Task: structure prediction
Amino acid sequence: MNGKDNKGKIIGVLLLVAIVAIGGFFVAKGRKVEEPKTSQKDSEVSSNENKNEEKLDKDNDSEKTEKGRMSPFKLKDMEGNEVTEEVFKDYELTIIAAWQTTCGPCYYELEALNEIYEMYKDKGVNVIGLTLDEPGIEKVKEATEELELKYTNLMIEEDYIYEIIKHVTGTPTALFVDKDGNFLREPKVGTRGVEGSVEDFKKIIEEINPSED
Result:
């Protein structure tokens, strides 16, 4: 592929993401996080119906695992270290925050996730930032340092942008994956500000991985 054509396509994709992000922010602002779908049935349902439902659920879960998975990657962090999908292995849940330096609402989400990271990093939950624009690493480092982000942030690469936009149509978007990179629920799109998003993330984490106390 011609280098100039490739650059042009990437810029076009990123402009589209930025436009959708701005619209998504106003749509998402003030909206409550949706409850994750569940297939649990009331105890009054007959045993035969329960068995059928369980079979359907297993089939659906299998299909989700096949289709709903983070694509393998090799990306660089702010120090130039290579990071792959193996980073998921040490945590029950990883929150991947897709953002852009040109997206104002993203900064609220990044701050909220900084609080979430500090609250849950020792409880099996990790946070990873993923920048979807190409302003150069200096601009991204400036943003992460200004916000004093404690969690790892990765720079997008030319090829991987086409993989991530399968799951991210605007910024900020948070993805939720397990140890194997399988998606655990639908993405969280938009922000309700720092305080609102902290509450939203706490609720989502509890729904995905409820505490035993």
